[in-house]
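re: ur question from earlier - yeah i can do the single chain one, its not a big deal. heres the input i used so u can compare w yours
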Amino acid sequence: MRQDIAELVTSALSGARSSLANLISLVEEENLDASEIMQMISPYLGKAYRIGITGPPGSGKSTLIDKLTAIIRSKGLSVGIIAVDPSSFITGGAILGDRIRMQQHYLDNGVFIRSMATRGSYGGLSKAVGATVNLLDACGKDIIIIETIGVGQAEVSIAEIADTVVLVLVPESGDEIQAMKAGLTEIADIIVVNKADRDGAERLSSELSNALALSPRKHNPPIITAQAVNDVGIDKLYGELEKQRLLKSSPATDQGSKGVI
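and the output i got, formated as tokens:
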């Protein structure tokens, strides 16, 4: 490995945000040094709790993450956020829409936000997302949140990276619910019905409960109603995430981190 790469890794592990950003750029560009970078950070992995947030476009995922991050920071925990955006047709890079909606956290040194492009990757996650999650983990982030660009059968790939998957739906999801029942509701650990002040929210919650009643899963995901924009239900979501974090980190369970890629 080149000396400058080794120095970047050492610097990032010591807390230098610019070095961490440079390393993410290298793995995102599928640089030849990426595999060696992963080898260097491997001894430092396994401490972060990894949360995947997925759901249809417009379901309020970014607002929910924004509010959830505020609660996590109030607990004294550091946060890494990966917002997976659609690729720009011009540059191939991320569109950065989620960064705009999370501006309040940019001056907080305890929050690191990175938008990443899908780059046409099957499953809604680029190949570099897993490596970036590992970099954030190695560099000491307590909680890592990965937001996917949308929803669909292919996006069950988020379950391979996250310890807990949160599926965000809204009353307007409509017929999309039918298409996702066989896939996403099977990998969701928590379901959030956001924008619950709108017509159809109670009906959606009831439909989801009925669908889950037929599921072969031993433990069906809790359904939380929320209004992220009004800070309603976010505390309850955090409480459920904390409960699952403690459960999955318990030596008595075999549900260890799914994120080491």
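The chain has two domains: 1-44, 49-248. not sure if urs matches, ping me
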